[in-house]
Specification:
CATH architecture: 3-Layer(aba) Sandwich
Number of domains: 1
Structural class: alpha/beta
Number of strands: 4
CATH topology: Rossmann fold
Strand content: 5-15%
Distance between the termini: 24 Å
Strand order of the largest sheet: 1-2-3-4
Order of helices and strands: HHEHEHHEHEH
Length: about 190
């Protein structure tokens, strides 16, 4: 996320990057660590941008700690509705160990019962089918190589945009940052 953080700074945002472990920690533990991290930021409003499972962590934060200095939220390539590729990998003991605690919770459907985020949420998805997920599971088109478009759906979202990028390319795509900046500024993507 460092390249995207640099680009977001060019959009005029003060950016902090939160690192977390999807393997060792479950969502409640990681949400608590994120809450502690956010408490160290002295700003009246905090926008959040989450890549892949990071978008689910943002939802966990708002579920477990609903009192936030609510800014806008963008999730990029986030499997809000589960992950076929992860479910396929989790069939094997080594796959479950590799995926870890947070993905196990996602696959168990725990996030479906979480309260929706009260603020503006933008869902950014990709439809360029290139990624390791295609080697693990049969993904329905369209998909970004790891996450299928239908897995990114989050019904309470304010707006959604689909870009011709793969899951991993979201980490360096200028179009992803441009759309993220548009949503953070206006609460809508640039369609």
């Amino acid at each position: 996320m460092q390249l995207q953080a640099r680009r977001l700074r060019r959009c005029g945002y003060e950016v902090r990057v939160f690192s977390w472990s999807t393997v060792r920690g479950n969502f409640s533990e990681n949400a608590r660590a994120l809450q502690t991290f956010l408490a160290s930021i002295s700003a009246p409003t905090v926008h959040l941008v989450g890549y892949s499972l990071g978008g689910v962590l943002i939802r966990a934060l708002h579920h477990y700690f609903p009192s936030q200095r609510l800014g806008r939220i963008v999730t990029c390539g986030t499997p809000h509705a589960g992950s076929r590729a992860a479910a396929r990998l989790a069939r094997f003991g080594w796959g479950r160990r590799m995926l870890g605690k947070s993905i196990a919770q996602l696959l168990a459907g725990e996030s479906a019962g979480w309260r929706p985020i009260a603020g503006e949420v933008g869902v950014l998805a990709g439809n360029f089918p290139c990624g390791l997920g295609m080697l693990i599971a049969r993904l329905p088109r369209p998909h970004d190589g790891v996450v299928a478009l239908d897995e990114t759906r989050y019904p309470p979202a304010t707006d959604t945009v689909v870009l011709p990028v793969s899951h991993y390319a979201m980490l360096w795509s200028r179009a992803v940052v441009d759309q993220t900046c548009a949503f953070l500024r206006a609460g809508r993507f640039a369609h």
